[in-house]
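FW: tagging you since you asked about this chain on Friday. Here's the raw sequence from the shared folder, copied in full. Didn't touch anything.
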Amino acid sequence: LLPSRVMLLRATRRASMRGFFSRGLAVSAAQAATGTGGRRKMSALELISKRRRGERITMVTAYDYPSALHCDLAGIDVVLVGDSCGMVELGYENTQPVTMDEMLHHAKAVCRGAKHPLVVADLPFGTYEISSEQAQEAAYRFVKEAGADCVKMEGGRIRAKTAKKVVDGGVAVMGHIGLTPQHISVLGGFRAQGRTAKKARELLDDALALEDAGCFAIVIECVPPQVGKAITEALEIPTIGIGAGPGTTGQVLVYHDMLGMTTHPHYKAFTPKFCKKFADLGESIREGLESFKHEVESGGFPSLEQHSPYKMTKSEEDLFMKMLATDADERRLIHDSKAKKAQRNGRI
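HL: got it, structure written out here
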């Protein structure tokens, strides 16, 4: 027989290992119900591995907790907290007015909902162009204050040095070339890019420079499909296309666009041509709101039978009615007293 001390040590180790595995495998009731239990958190390195395995990548631009949660439950790989929230959520004409504080507010909400996707936050216009140190500071705020996994910045070769500085500082960077909405003042509006051989080659050079700078992925926006495919084939890191054809590693769409969330004319004016609606929730939302308005105005909602669940006992109800009657009598006496006093003073 082993000495008692050795037996006790082995028993303690077995109990410790059982605890370790149970903690590692345990899932919450919500995770069990939604099927998210056991999923690993997506990382920048895993995205690169998916690219090498020839697997497609899904990315959705979302701006709040509910949309991030839906993306998580659907198994989306990446959630981008895009500065397009300025147009989609805040009603701005373009992305330029969006502030760092506004982006942090939305990023915090998204990080609470997206527990498994990689969360990428857009560096807003004016927070990274002045210097590499400014970009680092903004990136650190997203990671430390909001909980984002990494950041995205617009621009090609001109941003390579900045991207390298942020990566060297410990924050992963996703690049963005093609149509760069923050630069519409220079581009002359939301226009497709890379439509000539020279411009297409420049975009390829931009992508290679960002890869060399350490970017783990690059968004390619609004370019001909041949250009998107050529850039993807030239890189070892993933490309995420938006209006760039089917030849990129992955695709990204805005949550509200792809689900047909909004039918307002302001929104329709900015819905891009390349977007596919996978649902028409905006129409369902409008119908639901109109039904609510009609039922409230007609007295159909709420009903006593279905929508009034909180009850009083009969004895408490009788006592309450007596209190109301007493209160009414007291108010009447007070009113009569005031009226008589006013009469005596000649006011009536």
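FW: The beta strands are 57-61, 78-81, 118-122, 150-152, 172-178, 217-221, 239-242, 250-254.
HL: agreed, and Residues 8-30 have pLDDT under 50 and may be disordered.
FW: great, closing this out.
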